[in-house]
Amino acid sequence: MTRQLLALQARLTAQTGQAQTLTLMLDKGLAHWHARWIGHGLIARVPKQSQMGLDPVHNLAYEAACFTHAAASEHTPQLHQTIAPDHDLPWGALLVEEITGSAATAQDTVQAVMLSLAALHKLPLPPANARAPLLDAPEPAQDLIDLINVQAVHLNHAGIDADTRQRVNARLQATRIELPICCAGLPKRLIAFDAHPGNFLIRDNGQAILVDLEKMRYSFPPLDLAHATLYTSTTWDVHSAFELTTHQVAQAYQVWLSAMGEAAAPYKKTLVPLREAMWLWSMTWCAQWLSESDQNAKTKPGGQDWSTLHSDAALIAHVRARVQDFLAPRSVQRVQHEFEQLRQILA
Questions:
Q1: What digits encode the pLDDT tens for the residues 12-50?
Q2: Which residue from 28, 267, 261, 309 is spatially nearest to 140, judged by alpha carbons?
Q3: Which domains, and CATH codes, for the chain?
Q4: What's the rounded Cα separation, in Å, for the pair 149 and 214?
Q5: How far apart are CA 145 and CA 159, in angstroms?
Q6: Three-state secondary structure readout of the chain
Q7: For residue 12, what pLDDT is reported?
């Protein structure tokens, strides 16, 4: 990262005509490095790879569009500048507003997260020709199943317990049939698709700001509600880890339902099915990471690259521990029991 940081610093110095200083922030994500541009109130987001499977130019354009499409929610940072990729900065960078706030580290921050998501989900749906380059699948449920299927080939990894493999595959088989039927005709909205609590900062006024926006798309809001409250999400982040009871999850959903008002009505019957689908995505991603993380980093930037060589050792150790926990049979049984309880509570 040192070479890229110096390259970006040199470009900013040339742009402003004055010496500029960037300070590298703690490595806490598999997709980006972050650096603070001293004296400017901006954060540089430097991709390590493309979670969307894109080349550097299109990946940067996609990330920039995530910020511009979400800006009207007033719960995301403002995009200030795009720094194009070059030889020394192969993935380019985005300069975004620095948000001052604390991590979402406790159950009482979930309400703020839900209100932030509601602000995003209430944005008017743009005309179809104004949604690009963000994903806008004609059938989002089937599109999600297709994503899960790609990752699910890794469930045969030797490090995954047979009971976990059987349970996940059984629910995936049922979801392939049930989810498209359940979601037929469901309206699309702008969603984050990466709404775990670690991606939010809580301002002093209690407002939650979604600060990581690289996977946004037009799809179904309950996927974000799931990602904000699942066990595989609330215990994921290095500095934002807590567990929710089933009752607390249900309360969080009620906060979102109230904030959305009548706009929430079409989604009520899909809250648990889409929660389970988001969990299946997370579980199969864990399997993929187990399979691909020990590979060598790609020599040419482009697409997904989960090599551990892109991140600090402390972060990799944390991710490995979380992945192993999520894939453990006890964790699978815990989450599946929660689904059964929520089906009754949210009915």
A1: 999 999 999 999 999 989 999 999 999 999 999 999 999
A2: 267
A3: 2-97 (3.30.200.20), 102-345 (3.90.1200.10)
A4: 21
A5: 24
A6: CHHHHHHHHHHHHHHHCCCCCEEECCCCCCCEEEEEECCCCEEEEEECCCCCCCCHHHHHHHHHHHHHHHHHHCCCCCEEEEECCCCCCCCCEEEEECCCCEECCCHHHHHHHHHHHHHHHCCCCCCHHHCCCCECCCCHHHHHHHHHHHHHHHHHCCCCCHHHHHHHHHHHHHHHHHHHHHCCCCCCEEECCCCCHHHEEECCCCCEEECCCCCCEEECCHHHHHHHHCHHHHCCCCCCCCCCCHHHHHHHHHHHHHHHHHHHHHHHHHHHHHHHHHHHHHHHHHHHHHHHCCCCCCCCCCCCCCCHHHCCHHHHHHHHHHHHHHCCHHHHHHHHHHHHHHHHHCC
A7: 95
Could you report the per-residue pLDDT of 61-111, keeping only the tens digit for each?
999 999 999 999 999 999 999 999 999 999 999 999 999 999 998 778 999
Please compute, for residue 308, the number of CA atoms within 13 A of its CA located in the half-sphere on the CB side: 15
Q: Quote the CA–CA distance of 213 and 219 in Å, as a whole number.
A: 15
